[in-house]
Amino acid sequence: MDRTFILRFAVAFILIMHSVPGMFNNGIHEFGTFYLNTVGFAPYGVLLAWLIKLSHVVAAVLLLLNKYVKIASIVTIFVLIMGIIMVHYPEGWFVVGGGRNGVEFNFLLIFVLLAIMFPEGINSKLSKNNH
Q: Three-state SS across the chain?
């Protein structure tokens, strides 16, 4: 087990729990139809919603297998940033407590994925490339 396994496992679990239930309770269809289609993605909202959720499942599997971690993380970070811009930012910072449905959870996931991508830190990666 490497130094990122615990974080990779936690993020994989979160991604699975955020995506798989929607595949069986009509959540993906509703998100695509009643949100994505109404904000300009019609008629592709449902397809886009499925692609987003399938990207979460693929990323979760790749994180667990410790394969293509950077690509999986980059795609997931992009999805999380778009979620912040389109869904969470208008609701403020807090997920609960001082507000509802805010950006704080996506913010944390982005930085956890960065920590997984760069377990030795970004500076150590840059200094190795400069020597």
A: CCCCHHHHHHHHHHHHHHHHHHHHCCHHHHHHHHHHHHHCCCCCHHHHHHHHHHHHHHHHHHHHHCCCHHHHHHHHHHHHHHHHHHHHHHHCCCCCCCCCCCCHHHHHHHHHHHHHHCCCCHHHHHHHHCC
How many CB atoms neighbour CB 126 within 10 A?
10
Query: In the chain, how long is the greatest CA-to-CA distance?
Result: 53
- Asked if 7 contacts 112 with a C-beta cutoff of 8 angstroms, the reply is yes
Q: Whole-angstrom Cα distance, residue 46 to residue 94?
A: 28
List, for residues 48-107, the tens digit of each pLDDT value. 999 999 999 999 999 999 999 999 999 999 999 999 999 999 999 999 988 899 999 999
Q: Is the peptide bond before 43 cis (omega within 30 degrees of 0)?
A: yes
Phi-psi region of 92 (alpha: psi -120 to 50; beta: other; left: phi over 0): left
